[in-house]
Fold this sequence. Notes:
- The complex is a heterodimer.
- Chain A is an alpha/beta fold.
- Chain A has two domains: 6-173, VC0802-like (2-Layer Sandwich); 185-405, HUPs (Rossmann fold), CATH 3.40.50.
- Chain A has 13 helices and 16 strands.
- In chain A, strands 1, 2, 3, 4, 5, 6, 7, 8 and 9 form a nine-stranded mixed beta sheet that branches. Chain A has a seven-stranded mixed beta sheet with strand order 14-13-10-11-12-15-16, with helices on both faces.
- The longest helix of chain A is centred in the last third of the chain and has 19 residues, at 266-284.
- Chain B has twelve helices and twelve strands.
- Chain B folds into two domains: 3-11 and 258-381, Aspartate Aminotransferase, domain 1, CATH 3.90.1150.10; 15-256, Type I PLP-dependent aspartate aminotransferase-like (Major domain) (Aspartate Aminotransferase, domain 2, 3-Layer(aba) Sandwich), CATH 3.40.640.
- Helix content of chain B is 39%, strand content 14%.
- Chain B has helices at residues 15-26, 37-56, 70-85, 100-111, 129-135, 158-168, 241-256, 258-276, 307-316, 336-340, 345-348, 363-381, and strands spanning 3-4, 64-67, 91-95, 115-119, 140-146, 173-177, 196-200, 211-215, 282-285, 297-302, 319-320, 351-355.
- The longest helix of chain B has 20 residues, at 37-56.
- Classes of the chains: A alpha/beta, B alpha/beta.
Amino acid sequence: MMKFQAFLIKYGEIGLKGKNRYVFEDALVRQIKNALKTAGEGKFEVSRINGRIFVHAPEDYDFDLTLSALKHVFGVTGICPVRVIPNRTPKGIAEAVVDFIRENYERFDFTFKINTRRANKAYPLGSMELDALVGEAVLEAFPDMRVDVHSPEEMIHIEVRKEDIYLYSLVFKGPGGMPVGTGGKAMLLLSGGIDSPVAGYMISKRGVQLDAVYFHAPPYTSERAKQKVVDLARIISAYAGVIYLHVINFTDIQMYIYDQCPHEELTIIMRRYMMRIAERLAVSSDCLGLVTGESIGQVASQTMKSLLATNEVCTLPVYRPLIGFDKQEIIEIAGNIGTFETSILPYEDCCTIFVAKHPVTKPNLNIIRRSELLLKEKIDTMVEEAVAGDEVIVIRHGEAASVERLRG
Amino acid sequence: MEYYLDNAATTRVFPEVAEHMKNIMLEDYGNPGSLHNIGFKAEKHLRSATEVFSRLLKCDKTEICFTSGGTESNNTAILGSVLSRRNRGNHLITTAVEHPAVANVMTFLEGEGFSVTRLKTDTAGRINLDELNEALTNETILVSIMHVNNEIGTIEPVEEAGRLIRKKVPECLFHVDDVQGFGKLPLLPGEACIDFLSVSAHKLHGPRGVGLLYVSKRAHPKPILHGGGQMGGLRSGTENVPGIAGFAEAAERVFAEREAQAERLRSLRIRLLEGLSDLEEVFVNGSSEPEDSAPGILSLSIKDIRAEVLLHALEEKGIFVSSGSACSSHHKGPSATLRAIGVPDWALESTIRISLASDTPAEAVSAVTEALHELIPLLRRYRRK
C-alpha cells in the first residue's frame, strides 16, 4: 500500500483579504499544477476544498519528486502528506491512526494531540469523542507517548469526510512568499556570479515573474560562461516558472568604451549601458522594473555614489533585494536554493575582464556624463545593434527545462 | 573551414577505425572469455591486436597489457611496481614536468611514506642525465620519465636514461610515459632498457577509453585492479574488444606513415615558427632546435594577452587550440611544466599550445599564422590597466 495519497497545502495569510484571496489562490493552484509537471508522468489533481488546497496523487507516483516540486512553489508555507483511507467505524479509525504513527515515526515517546475535524456531520461520533477514543488507543499502543493538548510535539489530524478519511501529521516547510504571477514581471540582470541569481529568487518569491538579461562578451567570455548562466536561470526557474533569458552581445560596446573613456570609469559607464539596454528589453517585454544583485559597498561599482550613477540612466524602478545583505548571508541563500555550486565555477564574466586596478569608487555624475559624450559618435548605433542581435532562450521549470532558441 | 589544432588533447578517430569498431560491436560482440564461438571470434580480435602491438614494439605478446588509457597505464606501472618492490627500497625518481597521471601518483606515494626525487630540467624542459645518475641509489625501485612533454613537446633522453639506469642500478625498474610520443617518434622498450611503456589510443586517432602498458618480462608488477584475472592477471575486467581492435587498427595506420608524417609535421612546425617570427613578444617554450621537440607540438607564450581570450578569439575564426594545458575546463591553476622550466609569471596565464596531427592540412599553418597576426595586436589594445 502507498503511504500517502494526497498532500494538504498550507499557505500564508498575506493577501488573503477580500477579492485578492481568489487571485492568490488561483495563481497558487496554477503554479502547483505547473510545478507538478516536473514530478513525473502521472496526473495529479489539485482541488480547493473548504478554502484549502489538496493535491491528489495518481496511483503510482514518486513521493520525493512530488515533495520537492511542491517545495519549489512560492506561496506554499507547509506541505502535509495525507493518508486517505476509506470511511470506517470509530474503532477502525483508531487502528488506522496507530498504524499511521507506527509507520511514520521512528521513536514513540513524544507528546501528541488528536485533532478531529468532521466535514461529515452525519458521522455517528462527535469530534471530541473521536479525539478521546483514538487518543486512548494510541496511548495503549505506545506506552511512552503522552497527551498534551496545549503544546503537543505532534498534532495528529483526522478529517472525517463523506467518502473517506484523511490522516496527516507531518509538515514539510514550503518556501513561503507569494505565488508567481500575482506580482507582475521584472527584468533580472543575471551574471554568472553568486548575487544576481539570489536576487532573482528573492524577487520571484514575492510573486513576480522573471525575465533575465545576460551580457555576453566573446571572445573575452566563453560559451561555457554562457552555459553557466543558462544553468543558473534553470535552477531559478524551478521556483520562478518560465524565464525568458535574453543574451546580449556586449563586446563592441565594451571595446568602444575602453577606447574612448578614462579607464577607471570603464566599469561604471559599462554598467550604465547595461542598465539602459536592460531597461529597453524590460519595456518591450512588459516588465515593471529591473532587478540586480547589488549590495552596498560590496565592490567599487556598488558604493552609494556608484549606484547613484548607474541608477540615473533608468526610469523604471531598480529592485535590489540584497542591498543590505552581507556576502555571507547571500552565500547562505545561494547554498539553500542550489545556485552556489554553479555560481562559483571559474568562468570569467564580462564585468571583470577589463576592470581597472583602481576603479573610481565615488564617481562624479557630471564627469561620467561628460565621458559618455565621448561615445556619442557610435554608441547609439551600437546599442541598437546589440538589442537587435538579442538571442532569447526560453527556460522552463528547473530540471525539466527545455532550452530553445527563438532567434539569433 | 575548421582547423582542429588541439591534437595533443585528443585526436579525431580515423573513419576506418570507427567503422571497424562498429562492426565488431554489432557482429563479434562476445566476451573473449566465453568458450563458445561468438566468444572465440572476439578473442581473435584481441589476439590480432596483441600481435600488432608486439610487432610495433618488437616485444613478446605476453608483454602487452591493454588498459583503459594513459592514466591507468601509468598508475598500474607505478603503483604495481611499488607494491611488488617496496621491500627492496623506498626511493622513486621522476621529473618535475610529468603529466598529472604520473606526478599525482608520485605525490600520493610520497604521502604514503615513499621518498621521491623530482629531476629538474633546463629551460627547454630537458632533464640532465648527470642529475639522474646522482639521484640513483640502491634504494631506488623505480624511475618514471616521460618521452614527450604534453605541454611543450620537449623530447626527454629516455634511451640514454634507460641504459644509464640499467648500468648503475640493474634491478631498478624504468617506466616511460609515451602517451605523446608513441606513433610519432621511434622508441623500442627492449633497446632502451624500458620496463614499462604507457600508450593511449585516443592520441593517435583511436578511440577514447583504451590504452596499453608494455610490461617487460622481468618487471612483475602487482595488479591494482583485481577480479577475473584478464591480461595475465595484471588487469582484470572484461576486455574492451572493439576499443582494443580500433586501437590496433589506428596504430597500424599511424605507423605505416610515421616517418613521412613526422617529416611533414616537423616542416609545418618550422613554417609556423617562421611565420610567427616577426610578432613581437611572442616566445616559444621548449627547445629552439626542431630536433629536440615532438614534431606536432608548439607552445607559445604571448605577452599581454590572456590565453583563454586568444583561444576563444581563434575559435571564432574556426581555429581550435589549447590554453597551455594550464587551464583545462575542470582544473584551474598554473601549469607545473611551465613553472618547472622557469617561464616568467605572466606566461603562466598567457600560453597557448598548438598541436598538429596527421590529418592537419598544410593550409592550417597559414590560417593560424594569419589569425595570430590579426588577433595579437587587436587583443593587446584591450587589456587590464
